[in-house]
Design a protein that fits this description.
The chain has two helices and eight strands, in the order βαββββαβββ. With 128 residues, the protein is α/β, with parallel strands linked by helices. The chain has two domains: 62 residues, 2,3-Dihydroxybiphenyl 1,2-Dioxygenase, domain 1 (Roll); 53 residues, 2,3-Dihydroxybiphenyl 1,2-Dioxygenase, domain 1. β6 and β7 form a beta hairpin. The longest helix is centred in the N-terminal third of the chain and has 11 residues. The radius of gyration is 15 Å and the shape is globular. The relative contact order is 0.19.
């Protein structure tokens, strides 16, 4: 097997319009293609970051909540790289997103900060 990179990450949201606004207008991801799948009563929105397809945002009626805290099994969080934590935190706050305190990775000495999407999915910004 010759894995090359992660192709995409799929996220199921509870409120499609709210999550679409969050990922597009607040985080700045670019919509590539949006489809309403009539048979599933579901939207699928493909999003790109810096021209690279990265996230599939789905809506499904009555999708069950997924436990995140305390540390549940499964995908823990999605980390996005930024050049400046300070600038990113200012941008988050400008959009009404409240991040946790900025921390320093004890192994890499890089700074990072956690925040959540509208459904409580943990997201991380990691300074390059």
């Amino acid at each position: 097997m010759n894995l090359k990179r992660i192709h995409h990450i799929a996220i199921i949201c509870s409120d499609y319009e709210k999550s679409k606004d969050f990922y597009v207008n607040k985080l700045g991801l670019l919509p590539i293609k949006e489809v309403y799948r009539e048979g599933r009563h579901s939207y699928k929105l493909d999003l790109a970051l810096n021209g690279e397809y990265i996230i599939e945002l789905f809506s499904f009626p009555d999708a069950p909540a997924r436990p995140s805290y305390p540390e549940a099994r499964g995908l823990r969080h999605l980390a996005l790289e930024v050049e400046s934590i300070e600038e990113a935190v200012v941008e988050l706050k400008k959009h009404g997103i409240v991040p946790q305190e900025v921390r320093v990775d004890p192994y890499t000495q890089k700074r990072f900060v956690f925040f959540e999407d509208p459904d409580g999915l943990p997201l991380e910004l990691y300074e390059n």
